[in-house]
Amino acid sequence: MKRLVAIFALPLILSACGSDDEQNHNVGLSMGDIENGVAELTVTITDENQDPVTEGDITITPIMYMDSGMIHSTPVANQYGQLNQNGQFTSTAYFLMASMNGQWQIEVEFNNETHTFDIEVEMMMSDRKVLKGNSTDLIEHMDSDVPRSYYLFNLGREVNDTQNQFSVYVAARETLMEYHAITDGAVLNQGTAYEYTLGTIVVEMCSANCDNEANWKTAIENTEAAGEYTATALNLAGDETDSIEVRLSIGGDRKTSDGSETGYNATFSFASTESTMSMM
């Protein structure tokens, strides 16, 4: 199974800063099922009377403390925001790996205080795909230059009488702690030697006979969710026989499995036994 039973962290109690009168708040985190490495995160803030706190800035940061000693984060949609009228802030985390390699924590910053929640992540490494940049698309990693990684996540198929489509979320690594949703015009690693402006982004998908260019469908970005792309008319069956190849080009440069022109595209299959390893 690729789904994880929801994890509910116990609320933490904190005292607000910068006020003559101390106000106790309950900071709670709930995490929905993890499917294909993707999970919804909801922070809830209430006061000492259990009433919603409707003002305050929230930051959500997942952190993986690996057994090797390496520390890294993971892509998050809407990492920063404000509480709604119910005292909640909801976002989505796209996990790079399972907890078997270390300990995942979610850091929640509220009113300039940070509160930590341990979580358990169960997923297959094949749940997310990785494409690489070429020699003109590099980042710094452990004192050397390496090709930038682009992570693709399966957001699901919709196969019925009226729809036949597949959606992915795509994010690029800037550093081990910073990731950016792929959208036209975004500037990665801004102000550094590795600054990279994203030219025209083309995400294409194909489900069969992909040597024939006519079978590739151009995906459209969700205007309300940066980094989410959907292609239609893919001729999917909606079962384990489906296999979808995803091609990513930015500013005319194709991102591949190894960054070379002859490298592979990302391929999503739906067999329940799939379990392959891929590099960070």
Secondary structure: elements and pairs:
Blueprint lengths: L6 E9 L8 E8 L6 E10 L9 E10 L4 E2 L3 E2 L2 E3 L5 E7 L7 E9 L2 E7 L8 E5 L5 E4 L2 E4 L1 E11 L4 E12 L2 E4 L5 E2 L7 E2 L3 E6 L10 E2 L1 E2 L6 E4 L11 E8 L2 E3 L10 E4 L11
Antiparallel strand pairs: 1-2, 2-3, 3-8, 4-5, 4-7, 4-9, 6-8, 9-10, 11-14, 12-13, 14-15, 15-16, 15-22, 17-18, 19-20, 19-23, 21-22, 23-24, 23-25
Q: Mind explaining what this structure looks like?
A:
With 280 residues, this protein is mainly beta. Helix content is 0%, strand content 50%. The chain contains no helices and 25 strands. The strands form 6 sheets. Strands 11, 14, 15, 16, 21 and 22 form a 6-stranded antiparallel β-sheet that branches. A 5-stranded antiparallel β-sheet has the order 1-2-3-8-6, with no helix packed on it. Strands 4, 5, 7, 9 and 10 form a 5-stranded antiparallel β-sheet that branches. The two termini are 23 Å apart. Residues 1-22 and 273-280 have low confidence and may be disordered.
